[in-house]
Specification:
Length: 385
């Protein structure tokens, strides 16, 4: 049995956008008021034919109608691809963040390295850069590679636990801790015999103001963004959705595409709560599960409701679906569809899609990891599948 929480690598998709957000703010590339305009599509000029738009490479936002002009907190809340594409820079004499600095912050948040959890089989993930691409493919790093990396696609690969640990670091104000299996040891009467103490890896060199801006973006994601169904009465939840494309193949070896020509997707959601004094951080990953905001968010909501002992809401009547579904790109701004600008990852074995089965408390091929509580960095970790 493979522990997918620590041993399997996946593109994190839009859950990853909090990392370039932190990096861009801390490096002064953007501030709270900096805005970019999303029109649904962004054309990256061809380096050899910069004035010929027919040679430009298109990058798409999941909201093909565009999000309009928005700042970093709104970009996190609405999961705008184009904002993070533009922020990474590389065109129009705008240096932007660049892949080198983004990679530095990925390493700071623990990506590309073992977390050190006391479980066998952990894998470090992948933080790609120019040197890695030259050594692996004999090709130079392109601006388009940076665009894909900024939205957690392309060559970026993470374990669910790495993403959870990064989320906890944002939740607790900037301390990256080593995950622990045991929270405390109790005797037969339930009295604590030993309480595990936090094991910090590093204090992130990021200002409290930067961390707070990103935290607010994650709070807005639940309050008015792509994760509204994560909301819990009386508990302020913050989180980030993700829908990560991957190159799945069918039994005959043909590339799997949906009716609109899109690649299959993994469903992600990472969250923490309560916002002001976090006790729990959660990541839910559904392999081949579809859209994060639709599939992973409800699972995380159940986990957090159970933790905070908040009863489930009364079931609502289900409305009949329209006869013809609309393409994902045309859905409302509260739902996140695939990050379609990413190319097929190369050199990695494509994970096989698997049917998603959700029952009252069972999610097949899922990973649910919980850190309790982030501010003290003691942790509990669980994995299914």
């Amino acid at each position: 049995m493979v522990n997918h929480a620590i041993s399997s690598l996946f593109p994190p998709g839009s859950t990853f956008k909090v990392i370039p957000a932190v990096a861009g703010l801390q490096e002064g590339v953007i501030n709270r008021s900096t805005t970019f305009t999303c029109r649904g599509t962004y054309l990256l000029p061809n380096r050899y034919y910069p004035d010929d738009l027919s040679q430009a490479q298109p990058f798409y936002c999941w909201n093909r109608g565009g999000h309009g002009t928005l700042n970093v907190t709104a970009a996190i809340a609405q999961s705008c691809n184009i904002f993070f594409n533009q922020m990474v820079g590389g065109v129009d004499n705008f240096r932007g963040l660049g892949m080198e600095r983004l990679a530095d912050y990925m390493h700071l948040f623990g990506f590309g390295a073992l977390t050190g959890i006391e479980l066998p089989g952990e894998t470090p993930g992948l933080v790609p850069d120019d040197r890695w691409k030259r050594q692996t493919y004999g090709e130079s790093w392109l601006t388009g590679d940076s665009y894909n990396a900024a939205i957690g696609q392309g060559y970026v690969l993470s374990t669910p636990l790495q993403l959870l640990n990064a989320t906890a670091a944002i939740a607790n104000g900037g301390t990256l801790n080593r995950p622990q299996i045991v929270y405390q040891v109790i005797d037969a009467e339930g009295n604590p015999v030993r309480v595990m103490t936090p094991d910090p890896i590093r204090q992130l060199p990021v200002s409290p103001e930067v961390i707070e801006i990103v935290r607010q973006g994650m709070r807005d994601t639940v309050a008015r963004g792509t994760a509204r169904h994560a909301a819990i009465p009386g508990i302020e939840v913050a989180g980030k959705t993700g829908t990560a494309e991957y190159p799945g193949v069918d039994e005959s070896g043909r590339l799997m595409l949906d009716r609109y020509g899109n690649l299959p997707t993994h469903a992600w959601f990472t969250a923490f709560a309560p916002f002001d004094d976090p006790e729990i951080a959660v990541v839910v990953f559904l392999q081949g599960g579809g859209e994060g905001s639709r599939m992973s968010v409800p699972v995380a909501n159940e986990i957090m409701r159970h933790y905070f002992a908040v009863p489930e809401p009364e079931p609502q009547p289900v409305q009949s679906a329209p006869a013809e579904a609309t393409p994902p790109a045309e859905e409302s701004a509260t739902e996140e569809s695939p990050d379609e600008s990413a190319p097929e990852p190369e050199g990695e074995e494509a994970p096989q899609p698997e049917a998603l089965e959700i029952e009252i408390d069972t999610v097949r091929r899922s990973v649910a990891s919980v850190l309790v509580p982030p501010r003290r960095a003691t942790s509990y970790h669980a994995a299914n599948g």
